[in-house]
Design brief:
Blueprint: H1 7-14, E1 19-26, E2 35-42, H2 44-48, H3 65-77, E3 81-88, H4 90-96, H5 98-113, E4 142-147, E5 158-162, H6 165-168, H7 170-193, H8 199-202, H9 208-217, H10 228-231
Parallel strand pairs: 1-4, 4-5
Antiparallel strand pairs: 1-2, 2-3
Helix pairs in contact: 3-7, 4-5
Length: 234
């Protein structure tokens, strides 16, 4: 299996960029729960490190849950990598559509991470909260790498969209893992609040079991009513 590479990031640092951000989202196709976005930021210091623990890191969907948890822990413990999380709720998704909701969350995450220098503090058993941060010199030349074919609108920062970027670009793969682990944790908590749907198992995706339970119980407060399988239950 071909692993994501650091070629693009290396080229940007060689061209004088001081800060590279990468962003990815998770939960686009779910029937329940928010869409979650992670944006990571790195300098050449992080990029040049030999990350033996991260050697087999790849896009989150290609990893087992235990592997994702392990990589996410190593990433957030690294003091040279910063990250932020943003999300859009099911109500927002229903109001403005899933694409616009994901883009809104992407814009918020990138705006925040692009002003980060480094985490103020961390602990070994840190969960995956929004990182505490300090503001960096805003004069640093910054590039944002986006998973997908389109730039983020209303974002006054240079951007490079990359189709299947989470499979090709190391920095985007890092963002995909943190986003996925954070959302999985969130959906496990939601399963206790909204029992019976099996959210802890499928994390809101439209599996046969989820749809059968949806038919039996009806939509919960976190189901996306604009999505056809949910809408037909109303």
């Amino acid at each position: 299996m071909k692993l994501p590479h650091k070629t693009l990031e290396k080229g940007l640092f060689n061209k004088g960029y001081g800060y590279v951000c990468a962003v990815d989202e998770v939960g686009i196709g779910c029937l329940a729960g928010p869409v979650v976005v992670c944006a990571v930021g790195m300098t050449s210091t992080f990029h040049k490190k030999i990350h033996k623990k991260l050697h087999n890191l790849r896009e989150s969907k290609l990893l087992l849950p235990k592997q994702r948890e392990k990589f996410a822990r190593w990433l957030i413990e690294d003091q040279q990598l910063v990250y932020t999380l943003a999300s859009s709720s099911p109500k927002v998704i229903d109001k403005i559509n899933i694409y616009q909701a994901a883009r809104r969350a992407m814009r918020r995450a990138v705006q925040k991470v692009s002003s980060i220098s480094y985490p103020v503090s961390s602990t070994k058993n840190q969960k995956i909260p929004n990182t505490k941060y300090q503001i960096q010199d805003t004069g640093i030349k910054t590039m944002v790498l986006i998973d997908g074919p389109h730039k983020i609108s209303k974002l006054d920062i240079e951007q490079i969209p990359v189709v299947k970027g989470d499979r090709k670009i190391f920095a985007i793969a890092c963002a995909s893992i943190i986003a996925k682990v954070h959302r999985d944790h969130l959906m496990i908590k939601m399963a206790k609040r909204y029992p019976g749907y099996g959210l802890e198992r499928h994390k809101g995706y439209g599996t046969k079991y989820h749809q059968s339970q949806l038919a039996a119980l009806g939509p919960s407060a976190i189901h996306r009513r604009s999505f056809a399988p949910v809408r037909k239950m109303l």
